[in-house]
Amino acid sequence: MTSALSTAGLFTASGFTFAEPFTSQDKFDLRFRQVHLDFHTSQHLADVGAQFDPEQFAATLDQARVNSVTCFARCHHGYLYYDTKAHPERRHPGLQRNLLKEQIEACHKRKIRVPIYTTVGWDQFTADAEPGWRQVLDNGMLQGTPPNEPGFYRLQCLNSPYRDFLKAHVKDIFDSVPVDGLFFDIIKPNECSCPRCRRAMVQQGLDPANAKHRQKYGFDVMYEWMREMSAFVRSFNKSEDNKASIFYNGGHIGPDIRPVTNTFSHWEFESLPSGGWGYLHFPIAQRYGRTLGLDCLGMTGKFHTSWGDFHSLKNPAALQFECFNMLANNAKCSIGDQLHPTGKLDAATYELIGSVYREVEKKEPWCAGAKPLVDIGLFTAEEFIGGRVPPPTAGALRMLQESGHQCDIIDTEADLSRYKVLILPDEITVNAELEKKLSEYVSKGGALIASHRAGMNPTKDAFALPALGVKFKAEAPFSPDYIKARPALAQGLPTGELVIYLRGHEVEPVAGSEVLADVYPSYFNRTADHYFSHRQTPSAGKPAYPGAVKNGRCIY
Ligand SMILES: [Zn+2]
Description:
Blueprint: E1 33-38, H1 54-63, E2 68-72, H2 99-109, E3 116-119, H3 124-129, H4 162-176, E4 181-185, H5 195-203, H6 211-234, E5 245-249, E6 267-270, H7 281-289, E7 296-301, H8 316-328, E8 332-338, H9 347-367, E9 376-379, H10 382-385, H11 391-402, E10 407-410, E11 421-424, H12 432-443, E12 447-450, E13 470-475, E14 481-485, H13 487-490, E15 498-500, E16 505-509, E17 514-520, E18 545-551, E19 554-555
Parallel strand pairs: 1-2, 1-8, 2-3, 3-4, 4-5, 6-7, 7-8, 9-10, 9-11, 11-12, 12-19
Antiparallel strand pairs: 13-16, 14-15, 14-17, 17-18, 18-19
Helix pairs in contact: 1-2, 4-6, 8-9
The structure holds zinc ion.
């Protein structure tokens, strides 16, 4: 599975650089080989950390060529793993030693960086102690795992006194251990109907009964909390070259995060292909995030499936592919593991991680400081239809990856002048502002490809982008239907009609545009009265309207 490596050669340290969209307050140059060492440890265990040997811990990491390890201050069960000064009631009841501090000191001796993990959204200790701090759904129920089911998936409200606790907790971390960085987990929009949130919404002229207002308010609360927390963390920085890294994890980096980019020091793309993210999430998120000017870290797991899958190992070829894919996409590597409650690292896990990280280490000279050389900007549909793997973007990216075309994933705020070609897949509708931006791009010689509803106005009843050279008539009358390329587009395609499974549009070319392909309807649509064989009715053999139209440097 080393073939993924060849794409790393597409990046070059001497390649072009583009203007950063902004300057973050504290940019970080990350290490290449990180482990994210989960430690969500039930309170029903004694002997926590009893078998921890600082020297053996750091040596095991070092031998596996790990040079950064995220260790735990506090977990989703809500417990602390260091000798806290401020919150002794939250120290894990079974904890046998000052675990986090010993982890950090042992790693620092070997020049291993130790960012510190703490949870924000999920905290079972707090959920039990202060049920009034939990998020409330719009039906009045408490958000999250029901009381008689296992799991700590119960979100805290950031408008509650929990917010003050978090600051006191962060201060306590700085007072108790050396801090290389902080990783805040489970950062989600605070969409909450608790009395505090309802009052605040009304004060801001928002309607708590309106779901759209609650969503907007939820984002505002999250953004505001992140700004406040980053300013607070930065107040502990000792000097310009001794700063704590800051990352807020919500399991995805997309256009929603752009407004608060400067609250981060870097990106970590949590994306375990076997853990629900799939194989297309990482490239989509990474190709977007890398355009925002911060250093990037991909994050997978060593697990057979996902987090908390104890005593399981990923297929080595899969772990290799995932890490090399990170390098090839201009990210550094992080592999998730969970430390056994006794505090001893699993030997087989670090043999596996070491086997991949030794290979990563050899490739680093070609990856450090590399910049992606990219021709194509592919719009993400996330801004329009939501979802961390929006199908129109996933489909277009898969085609580009498989055909070896280099692209960034972009949103409507992006600097378009970086790209020779823009692709608007299926759902990228165009308001007045975007129309102006795209028309300007085309008038300066940029090329553009749009499909289906892309290029239409937000109400999707007419094209809003004159440059496309097509007029909307109706939804396609037949579906599935067939498409056949004319000679200009036919190179490399099979001859004859090809099936299009989903319903498209019937369009008309405007004067001056050239038809590149035709749509061939079937004899009839498949209904109870008229159906044909097992699946779609075949082509009736007659072209009806354009399937692809070229106007100057634009293709619809
Ligand atoms: Zn609330």
